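Case study.
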Amino acid sequence: MKTLKHSRHREAIVRFLMTRKDHPTAEVIYNNIKQEYPKISLGTVYRNLSLLAEIGEIQKITCGDSSDHFDANINPHPHFVCKECFRIIDLEMDNLNFLNTLAEKSFDGDVEKHQLIFYGKCPDCKEKALQNQQ
Amino acid sequence: MKTLKHSRHREAIVRFLMTRKDHPTAEVIYNNIKQEYPKISLGTVYRNLSLLAEIGEIQKITCGDSSDHFDANINPHPHFVCKECFRIIDLEMDNLNFLNTLAEKSFDGDVEKHQLIFYGKCPDCKEKALQNQQ
DNA sequence: TTTCATAATAATAATCATTCCTAATTTTAT
DNA sequence: ATAAAATTAGGAATGATTATTATTATGAAA
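After joint prediction, the assembly is written out as follows.
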């Protein structure tokens, strides 16, 4: 197994990700890190994001749009995706681990984790729709 | 709004999808339909899959691997993805619509639907792992 | 603190799924 | 049958992501 060496870039990626609640894409992360480290390359961002997700330090979110999103909050929690503005919102719901147990009762496999994504209209877009009606 | 015209290809795609429980990718669907309609093009498969998903006649499943998968069963149900063989399995669980209600209580948006994917080891891979231990 | 093995990187090419484009064909309402 | 509009094949284009390679940075051991 490969031993990790310290990397400023990787550290910066995690640090940046921890400041954001909106689950940015690799591209967005790249553009932001570039301000601190102008020479960083997009490939480095992708490589480190994969690595970090693999070792479980961050979480990759695949919500159905064209790009993957990343979340520094590895505590299992559901997400909401707005079908209008495509923003991703963390939902604060009670612990849903019981779903894994429930799933395991329905077949013979081992369940380790789950990803739960809700789709609909976010508070902002809901509000805008209401205003347009009047 | 565009009115749909009848299309043998689109019909064949739906018909094929209904015979499968394994949620094939566009590529797999293409290779199978090709045996009945050798001149069909991959673009046609993609276009029709998008269209069918849009009008709600089929369902697109984005589970985190490189390709989208498709399901003719539009009745909401959770999926299981094996982290070893990557197969997708339908889970037969009790109705989980209450999750949408629960989610709506946690913020101000409108929830229309959800996608629930469990990850772990499928029955076959679990069995294989056991045999290798002995 | 030098040395050295190896991880990490920049830059860029390559890959792969998916979408777009266009001219030709099919469908269907009249 | 006619014509408008949807559908198609074939291939080019796009866009996200991964792979490649030569160079640089890191960290353990001497």
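Observations recorded in class. The first strand of chain B starts at residue 59 and ends at 61. Chain B has two domains: 1-71, 75-134. We will return to this complex in the next lecture.
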